[in-house]
Design brief:
Blueprint lengths: L17 H16 L14 H11 L11 E6 L2 H22 L2 H7 L10 H4 L2 E8 L1 E3 L5 E3 L3 H18 L3 E5 L6 H6 L5 E10 L15 H4 L4
Antiparallel strand pairs: 1-2, 2-6, 3-4, 5-6
The structure holds 3-iodo-tyrosine (IYR).
The site of 3-iodo-tyrosine has 9 residues, from helix 3.
Length: about 220
């Protein structure tokens, strides 16, 4: 039977001195606090190798039954980006004009977003993240996936952290619905669009909404 439990020693864990743990925890938080969602990018190219390492980091995420139920499609081709922008803006026009509730538009107002998505053709990379609602086995049979959405969310969080750590800016963009991504990128029906990450360098004049993060006391309790 494939996948029988066959443990190997935990060779990768490194126990650190406490002082170093404190310093690394502090520094990692400081690094992530500097991350902002960016909506204005330059067209400056980003080396593919950097994107590849960030995707390897994302692929290290834990997943249900270790199925790694994700697929990342990294797009730098100008024509594909143009078609993705066309698909996204067409959905977004529907969203802002009809689909969004008044309540949703009110929640979005502080972000200043609208249906125009020029960054989809300006930024050097778009990373379309898909989760596998089901996988397809060697004989074409459907293979059930466990927690695919949750697992892909974890991997995407790690990808965003890796991109930021590498010195890149990104935007988690979620045009809805995103089925156009399957068609444009030629992905099978079992793969469902999860998020579209826009990746590159911020435009020199990029601005961000003046929003704040909840303090620890509002997001965590110790008992
Ligand atoms: N997908 C739309 C609307 C939007 C929705 C949420 I939730 C956001 O946090 C931001 C935007 C858009 O990208 O404009």
């Amino acid at each position: 039977m494939a996948g029988t439990h066959r443990p190997v020693p935990l060779a990768t864990y490194e126990r650190l001195p406490e002082a170093q743990m404190r310093e690394r925890a502090r520094a990692f938080n400081a690094l992530l606090q500097r991350r902002r969602s960016v909506r204005a990018f330059t067209d400056e190219p980003v080396p593919r190798e950097i994107i590849e390492d960030c995707l390897r980091a994302a692929g290290s995420a834990p997943s249900g039954a270790n199925q790694q139920p994700w697929q990342f499609v990294a797009v730098s081709d100008a024509e594909l980006k143009r078609r993705i922008r066309e698909g996204a803006e067409s959905e977004e026009r529907e969203f802002y004009a009809h689909r969004a509730t008044r309540e949703w538009l009110t929640a979005l107002a502080p972000l200043g977003t609208d249906a125009e998505k020029p960054f989809l053709t300006t930024a050097p990379w778009l990373i379309a993240v898909f989760y596998k609602a089901y996988d397809v086995g060697a004989d074409g049979e459907r293979v059930k996936q466990y927690y695919p959405v949750d697992s892909t969310g974890i991997a995407t969080g790690m990808l965003i952290a890796a991109l930021h750590h590498a010195g890149l800016a990104c935007l988690t963009h979620t045009p809805s619905p995103m089925a156009f991504l399957n068609e444009i990128l030629g992905r099978p029906a079992g793969e469902r669009p999860f998020v579209l990450l826009v990746v590159g360098y911020p435009a020199p004049d990029a601005t961000v909404p003046d929003i704040v993060r909840k303090p620890l006391s509002a997001i965590a309790t110790f008992r």
